[in-house]
Amino acid sequence: MPVKRRKLNSVASPLVQAEITAEPITFPDQRLLRIPQVALYLGCSVWAVRDLLHRGELTKIPLGRKHLIDRLEIDAYIERVKAKAAA
Asked: The pTM is what?
């Protein structure tokens, strides 16, 4: 018996849609970012950001069920990685 495939509706969030269309996203005057925003900021996947949080390389700020990450800490992480790569 053949498998019946159903078509899924593709409803992407604005962050995902902007990544698909390659539009630059800016976070004006926003210091605390959500995990998908951090992923776009770093140019990696959401799971890579979650891995950084799990390894303790980034610190999350819990706010209810959301986890926010300080942009200054992300910039400091980038500088640490750059310094380690240069050494």
From this structure: 0.68
